[in-house]
Amino acid sequence: MLGGSIGNLVEWFDWFVYASFATYFAGAFFPKGNDTAQLLNTAGIFAVGFFMRPIGGWLLGRYADRRGRKAALTLTVTLMSASALLIAIAPTYDQVGYFGAFILLVARLLQGLSVGGEYAASATYLTEASQPGRRGFVSSFQYVSMTMGQLIGLGLLIVLQRTMSDGELHSYGWRIPFIVGAVAAAVVFWLRRNLLETEAYTEEEGTGGGTAERGTLRQLLNHRKEALLVIALTMGGTVAYYTYTTYLTKYLSNTAGLSKSDASLVSFCALFLFMLIQPAAGSLSDRIGRRPLLITFGFGSMLGTVPIMTALANTDTFLGALVLSLAALVIITGYTSINAVVKAELFPTHVRALGVALPYALANALFGGTAEYVALWFKKAGAESGFYWYVSGCAAVSLIVYLTMRETRDTALTREAAEKEAADSLRKTAV
């Protein structure tokens, strides 16, 4: 669990601090003017990073199916380290004009490439490395590590806000978290070099057959129904997740009127509690199945987004904002705690990483990566409540999928397990 998930911590720390510190470095890369316009520019670059995720999902998913989960996990964290370092040393608009924004864009493209492969490699590794009946619990640590990365980023933001002046943060303080991320990635690289390969991949590799076809688009097309299913079931979850994590701090600051420091503290506390309940929800799915949790999320997000976001816009207290934010994150847990294992359980070993990576990355590019930009667009247009209905609509589409999809909890991931399952079934039939 540690080896498979710790890279997520560093990668999502880097990914998240971009969004968390955007209010401080937005003015460093673009001409001075309207604050919302500057945030739209940085949010646009944030969204562009998501459009590299399908490419990363294709290249690194293929790499994971052909070279192994361990090799892919090591490569992704190397790419993320390089991108964090680029942002840390990028020159400002006053120094080189828009060239600094160009470097920022290149770094975000590298991050998108890396995260596009990291999610699938990690999800596949954690799922394959788990014992049957424990896959939901173990794979939930993917979002534990992702959330921990966000918490460390937010914690660093809170510390810097309380130890540095606002001017210092806008001047150079925003570079500190990216330096931290680049250094931390080197440690994770060393840890991942010592990972053991999963039994499912080792078994597939040992057969010696179909090596050239592992992780190919041709093989993925043989499972097009499952690929479309991944896109559809991801749609509502990814929009809701990015709304209540990466966008929440700016929403509380720009719309609710909380101070930047209070908004950051609300996000920190809510995310910490959210992180703690992921394993419990994952373990619950091992007992009752994946679909009940997904369906609960679908109904909760579809019906609860508009009232929760409306109430958040009108709250002016720390406690009120915390309770509402936590309520939203509890609903989302029905998706986050198990979405990785559900997707991995849909595909056979020879195309599992690519099958998870590419469809998921496409869904994130279309819906997750644009969530913040769409929210700010609605705000600039003077119709912010339209975004609430957009999130609810995405959840409604995914809910239809949750209600009609098959249960994946008891799927056999190795040939040995499948043969044993078939033998047990024949024995029960004979009896």
TrEMBL record:
PROSITE patterns the record matches: MFS, SUGAR_TRANSPORT_2
CDD domains: MFS_KgtP (cd17367)
Gene Ontology molecular function terms on file: symporter activity
Membrane topology summary: Multi-pass membrane protein
Ranges where the Major facilitator superfamily (MFS) profile domain occurs: 1-409
Keywords for this protein: Cell membrane, Membrane, Symport, Transmembrane, Transmembrane helix, Transport
Keyword Cell membrane (UniProt): yes
Cleaved signal peptide residues: none
Location in the cell: Cell membrane
GO CC terms: plasma membrane
Transmembrane segments: 12-30, 42-60, 72-90, 96-120, 141-160, 172-191, 227-244, 264-281, 293-312, 318-342, 354-375, 387-405
Stated family: Belongs to the major facilitator superfamily. Metabolite:H+ Symporter (MHS) family (TC 2.A.1.6) family.
Record's function text: May be a proton symporter involved in the uptake of osmolytes such as proline and glycine betaine.
UniProt-recorded name of the protein: Putative proline/betaine transporter
Organism: Streptomyces himastatinicus ATCC 53653
Biological classification of the source: Bacteria, Bacillati, Actinomycetota, Actinomycetes, Kitasatosporales
